[in-house]
Write a structure and sequence with these properties.
The complex is a heterodimer of chains A (about 200) and B (about 350). Chain A has about 200 residues and is of the alpha/beta class. Helices cover about 40% and strands about 10% of the residues of chain A. Chain A has 2 domains: about 10-55, RecR Domain 1 (Helicase, Ruva Protein, domain 3, Orthogonal Bundle), CATH 1.10.8; about 70-200, Dna Topoisomerase Vi A Subunit, Chain: A, domain 2, CATH 3.40.1360.10. In chain A, the strands form 2 sheets. A 4-stranded parallel β-sheet of chain A has the order 4-3-5-6. The N and C termini of chain A lie far apart (about 85 Å). Chain B has 2 domains: about 1-115 and about 310-360, P-loop containing nucleotide triphosphate hydrolases (Rossmann fold); about 120-305, RecF/RecN/SMC, N-terminal domain (Glutathione S-transferase Yfyf (Class Pi), Chain A, domain 2), CATH 1.20.1050.90. Helix content of chain B is about 40%, strand content about 25%. Chain B has helices at about 35-50, 125, 130-140, 145-165, 170-210, 230-255, 275, 280-300, 320-330; strands at about 1-10, 15-20, 25-30, 65-75, 80-90, 95, 100, 115, 220-225, 265-270, 270-275, 305-310, 335-340, 350-355, 360. In chain B, helix 4 (about 145-165) crosses helix 5 (about 170-210), helix 5 (about 170-210) packs across helix 6 (about 230-255) and helix 5 (about 170-210) crosses helix 8. Classes of the chains: A alpha/beta (about 200), B alpha/beta (about 350). The interface of A and B includes residues 117, 121, 152, 153 and 190 of A.
């Protein structure tokens, strides 16, 4: 028996969508059918938004975060403390600090961490600009991942700025705020215990 | 803590089989080559994320098959607990613990503690340091999540650092950056191993004494450490200094040459290595003592007896040793014994599971 011909166009749309992070095959199908049911204008608007974002958004010349300007809104804000720099691996990490609404400083996006197994060395990351920004009176807060790569990258920064007047700190590890102690996993409790702080 | 049912699909000689267990003593019987050891291996794998017989997980897939699935149901502290693992020929694995999915095999560890005994345990004494390190790691991971996490960390840092040492153009600054996580995790591992050994050694000495009816004093120690320092900061410093001294040699070798991955468990009778000086019988008793002692240590640390897997150990043992194991098992937690003949047992089984060609005979 002959095989029925495939619907190439819709199959292609579904597999493009399924290639996005945290989108499975079923969700991709639902999205594809949803898009096909939309007015043509709405779909064109989506396509235009995608194209425009890709064409006009680039890295901020100061911190490396995504922006459509030369310098992003955080770096160019005069309400921000320019000498307090939080160093993160990727732009999405900034959102966590911004959601808190309480961070007064600016950011620096490295674009990843040093990982010899993946062929990523210091030259592949945004270090040159970080050294430029690390002038006297600056404090760097290292908010890198707690895996081996993140720790090595933090150690690399500390090593390079050793002897300079830059102050370097890293985020504390501990019990998530608002969580009940009895539901926190034992490893987190143990580590929090080790990095306990004096009260009196 | 005990296992209730295990379902095996495409595992060794099990096409598709569900087996249920009694909370106490389970005897696996049946002719050799029909699946007794394979069933013990499946329990070991689903609880500890590796086989006690092979390091190649692919070998566990049924002949001509392309994946295996193990699903385990049991009880921990009275609560139902489920964990499962799927392993495909492609190397893809899927782990689920109480419905929560993960891609990390090691997430299976730390729920059901297991100690296994088999005639191959003799290799612990006879072979190189790798098996002895593994013995220590498996023991420690079963009572310390911190150890499991630190070991994962260390191994990742080690892999990264070795890959760096193999790259001709890699700078000293990047290498130095990878000293940090290696030293940090490495010092913790050495200290945790040393402390666990301090608890394990007297237990092992007692076990050996009763197995061998007096006899030599069994000693255990961690050897090949970067330093004898007893505090973490001092140990870290010594480790770091050692790495700096080894820079040139490490670059030539393309390998990290110091750290917990080079340590060994030294086993001796009054300073004489059992490996070199022990008789075959002494080695067998020492291996057994190590396992008995680790079961006791797990019991003491976790305040519940571990699950024991005993593969064909009674046939080779004399009366004294049989009784000794019998003593350990009586009134303890859940035990699985693979033995062709029920008559070899010094006690009564609560459940007898008869196996023929990868199936339970009812």
């Amino acid at each position: 028996m002959d095989q029925e011909p495939k619907e190439i166009i819709i199959e292609n749309l579904i597999s493009q969508l399924a290639g996005l992070p945290s989108i499975g095959r079923k969700t991709a199908q639902r999205l594809a059918y949803h898009l096909l049911a939309q007015e043509e204008g709405a779909v064109q608007e989506l396509a235009r938004a995608l194209n425009e974002a890709k064409a006009r958004i680039h890295a901020c010349s100061s911190c490396g975060n995504y922006t459509e300007r030369a310098v992003c809104r955080i770096c160019s804000s005069d309400r921000r403390q320019g000498n307090l720099i939080c160093v993160v691996e990727k732009p999405a990490d900034i959102l966590a600090f911004e959601r808190s609404g309480s961070y007064p400083g600016v950011y620096h996006v490295l674009g990843g961490s040093i990982s010899p197994l993946d062929g990523i060395g210091p030259a592949d990351l945004n270090f040159a600009r970080l050294w430029e920004r690390s002038a006297a009176g600056v404090e760097l807060i290292l908010a890198l991942n707690t895996n081996a790569e993140g720790e090595a990258t933090a150690s690399y920064i500390a090593q390079k700025l050793h002897g300079s007047s830059v102050k370097i700190s890293r985020l504390a590890r501990g019990i998530p705020v608002g969580s009940e102690l009895e539901y926190v996993d034992e490893l987190t409790v143990q580590r929090a215990l080790e990095s306990r702080v004096e009260v009196i | 803590m005990h296992l209730e049912t295990l379902s095996l699909t495409g595992f060794r000689n099990y096409r598709s089989q569900e087996v249920s267990f009694a909370p106490g003593l389970n005897l696996l019987s049946g002719p050799n080559g029909h699946g007794k050891t394979n069933l013990l291996e499946a329990i070991h794998y689903v609880c500890l994320a590796h086989s006690q017989r092979t390091r190649k997980d692919k070998e566990l897939i049924e002949w001509n098959g392309n994946a295996f699935v193990l699903r385990l149901l049991g009880r921990i502290g009275g609560l139902a607990h489920a964990q499962s693992v799927e392993y495909a020929e492609t190397g893809a694995k899927r782990v689920k613990v109480n419905g929560r999915e993960s891609k990390r095999l090691s997430d299976l560890i730390g729920h059901f503690e297991v100690v296994s005994f088999s005639p191959e345990d003799l290799d612990l004494i006879r072979s190189g340091p790798q098996l002895r390190r593994r013995f220590l790691d498996i023991l420690l991971c079963q009572f310390s999540l911190d150890y499991l996490d630190t070991l994962r960390h260390y191994n990742q840092a080690l892999k990264q650092r070795n890959s760096l040492l193999k790259q001709a153009g890699a700078g000293n600054d990047v290498l130095a950056a990878y000293d940090a996580p290696l030293v940090e995790a490495g010092a913790r591992i050495t200290l945790m191993r040393r402390r666990a050994l301090a608890d394990l050694a007297p237990l092992a000495r007692d076990c050996y004494r009763s197995i061998s009816d007096g006899g030599e004093d069994l000693e255990l120690a961690l050897s090949g450490c970067v330093s004898e320092a007893e505090e973490e900061p001092a140990l870290r410093e010594d480790f770091h200094r050692k790495l700096l001294a080894l820079r040139g040699t490490e670059r030539e070798a393309g390998l990290t040459l110091a750290g917990p991955h080079r340590e060994d468990l030294a086993i001796s009778f009054s300073g004489k290595a059992v490996r070199d000086f022990g008789s075959q019988g002494q080695k067998r008793s020492v291996a057994l003592s190590l396992k008995l002692a680790s079961a006791r240590l797990l019991d003491a640390r976790n305040r519940r007896p571990p699950i024991l897997l005993l593969d064909d150990v009674f046939a080779e043992l004399d009366e004294t040793r049989r009784l000794r194991i019998g003593e350990l098992i009586r009134g303890q937690g859940q035990v699985f014994i693979a033995n062709p003949r029920a008559a070899d047992l010094p006690f009564q089984a609560e459940k007898i599971i008869t196996l023929r060609c990868g199936r339970v005979v009812v």
